[in-house]
Specification:
- It contains twelve helices and no strands.
- The chain has helices at about 10-15, 20-40, 50-70, 75-85, 90-120, 125-150, 155-165, 175-190, 190-220, 225-240, 250-265, 270-295.
């Protein structure tokens, strides 16, 4: 186990020294990130259809499922769609979830690109870490290109045909899937401003993750520059992207942080400590997300004005 290999006593002592400051780390940065990501999702709709607060709590609920279930980070997207079922027509919800997934991944790729540039130009990092970051960036670009291409070729209808091949015939030529494809095409062709704003807010949220990392390391007594914190955050997000099949990237992220910190001269033990502090924060916000799910799952009375 990676904790056992990196001086567990020192790790626990470092976390214990945080004291009450741990609550600040747990609450403040993630609350701001959740708000910005909700804004990013809001602009993934063709127009404002749902209150920002509802989007924020719905997104927290969905992310709780993404982090805790072996659904390749897709189970939470279904949860988000289901929770908004009584507020927005289904085709628009599905379309917004797909667009938001696209824009948050684009923003993540931009952060990883920024991290690669900063590592090359500003840090004396191990070349193996730089090579790994470049490969992760290439993987993300290729995956994103395929995802966007699939959306332009009728992603929802294609998914319906695949389901029909495994016996779920009711999804073949389903009118709702055609509406999703039309909604996606309408958004990309007619809403460039909302697309750009969605990417922008998600990118700022990713950057806040770097600020959170800088703050955690400062509180742990290992101050670093914002440049170093951004490189660490960029590599961490790349690892999450590459290991999306593992719930919460459990284990893979800890190993990645240990290697990154060692390559930057900060020590693998501090990398594991840093990762565990973030895991504590993650556990708290998973609990918040599950509570939000329990409260939001109660269906609202039908709204006759929202259309089909």
């Amino acid at each position: 186990m990676i904790v056992a290999e990196n001086d567990p006593a020192a790790i626990l002592a470092s976390i214990g020294r945080l004291g009450w400051r741990l609550s600040v780390v747990i609450v403040l940065p993630t609350a701001l990130v959740a708000f910005l990501d909700a804004l990013g999702w809001r602009y993934a709709f063709t127009r404002d259809r749902v209150g920002l607060g509802t989007l924020m709590w719905t997104r927290l609920a969905g992310e709780a499922f993404n982090l805790t279930t072996p659904t390749a980070a897709l189970g939470g997207e279904a949860v988000k769609t289901w929770l908004l079922r009584d507020r927005v027509p289904l085709s628009e919800v599905v379309s917004s979830v797909i667009v938001a997934k696209t824009t948050i991944t684009i923003a993540q790729g931009l952060l990883l690109l920024l991290g690669v540039v900063l590592a090359w130009t500003s840090l004396a990092a191990d070349s193996r870490i730089l090579t790994a970051m470049e490969w992760l960036l290439a993987l993300e670009i290729a995956s994103l290109a395929l995802f966007v291409h699939a959306q332009t070729r009728g992603l929802a209808s294609f998914g319906g045909r695949l389901l029909a091949r495994v016996g779920l015939r009711r999804f073949e030529r389903h009118a709702g899937l055609d509406r999703v494809d039309r909604s996606l095409a309408e958004f990309y062709l007619q809403q460039p401003r909302r697309l750009a704003l969605s990417i922008f807010y998600h990118f700022v949220a990713w950057l806040l993750g770097a600020v959170e990392g800088w703050m955690i390391l400062w509180l742990l007594g290992t101050p670093v520059s914002l440049v170093t914190a951004t490189v660490i955050e960029a590599f961490g997000t790349g690892i999450r992207f590459a290991t999306f099949l593992i719930p919460g990237s459990l284990g893979a992220l800890e190993g990645g942080y240990a290697a990154t910190f060692a390559a930057l001269g900060l020590g693998g033990t501090m990398g594991v400590t840093f990762s565990l502090v973030r895991r504590l924060r993650e556990i708290v916000w998973i609990a918040v997300g599950l509570i939000a799910f329990a409260l939001l799952r109660v269906p609202r009375p039908p709204d006759p004005s929202r259309g089909a």
